[in-house]
UniProtKB/TrEMBL annotation:
CDD domains: PGDH_2 (cd05303). Residues 8-314 form the D-isomer specific 2-hydroxyacid dehydrogenase catalytic domain. Belongs to the D-isomer specific 2-hydroxyacid dehydrogenase family. Coiled coil: none annotated. InterPro entries: D-2-hydroxyacid_DH, D-isomer_2_OHA_DH_cat_dom, D-isomer_DH_NAD-bd, NAD(P)-bd_dom_sf. It comes from Flavobacterium caseinilyticum. This is 3-phosphoglycerate dehydrogenase. Residues 107-293 form the D-isomer specific 2-hydroxyacid dehydrogenase NAD-binding domain. The lineage of its organism: Bacteria, Pseudomonadati, Bacteroidota, Flavobacteriia, Flavobacteriales. Keywords: NAD, Oxidoreductase. One of its GO terms (molecular function) is oxidoreductase activity, acting on the CH-OH group of donors, NAD or NADP as acceptor. Pfam families: 2-Hacid_dh, 2-Hacid_dh_C.
Amino acid sequence: MKVLANDGISKSGILALEKGGFEVITTKVAQEQVANFVNENNVSVVLVRSATKVRKDIIDACPGLKIIGRGGVGMDNIDVDYAKSKGIHVINTPASSSESVAELVFAHLFSGVRFLHDSNRNMPLEGDTNFDGLKKAYANGIELRGKTLGIVGIGRIGQATAKMALGLGMKVIAADSFIPQVDVKVEFFDGQSITTTIVSQSLESLFKEADFITLHVPAQNGYIIGEKELAIMKDGVGIVNCARGGVIDEVALVKALDSGKVSFAGLDVFENEPTPEMAILMNHKISLTPHIGAATGEAQDRIGTELASQIISILG
């Protein structure tokens, strides 16, 4: 049986599938050609990440399709319910990228509190002519230790983020309408661990209390953070979004950054991907990455092998 990994798959995933008797095709097929390619090559499994969309048109056009797999968590690029109604298995890998995304959250947090995103832009331009000026400009950093991190969505990625925050000595609070409380186990290199319970609170109280806010929610119909929410936050709050574009009102965010209400933002995802607004890209208070939350070698290995084992158990 043939597997089309249209957005790529790790070497470990390919090896595991081949060992299970599958032929893996990693040719990148254009969106409008996916259905034709699947039919012409008798493909049984289509694997995607965030680039390729598997909508009703492809599902209807490909009667031989048995599995649609998403390497990662969010399934908003797949018509999941419709696929299932046609007897197609839909799989994903919710646990595989948690650590990678959580580490990127902290990359943005550290960048924000020590101005790394801005100093990395300005040091090459002025480092040799205005060293003392830049030193003064970036002199008012703050520590993360002892501050309160508000986590919106305390699922797998939220919990991985909480563990790192606790390890840094931060206070962690969370808001999640589906998870009333969760035990978070922080494990150390020598086998020791500590467990703490995080009880979910209201979004409003989280916005009021948190020094930093990080979002870990699926795609939404409306904004989670807009003008009203920004108004009740602490002055100088830092906001990170490594979840989904469209959960923060970017116009309201830029306004809050310009006024100083928000001290910095870290964005891995955007309302208009893959063409984010210039007002976001050029803002010196925003730390920017191009949707790379799960893009580590370790996460891609885990995603590949996890997809392979699910496919083999369904079709093997």
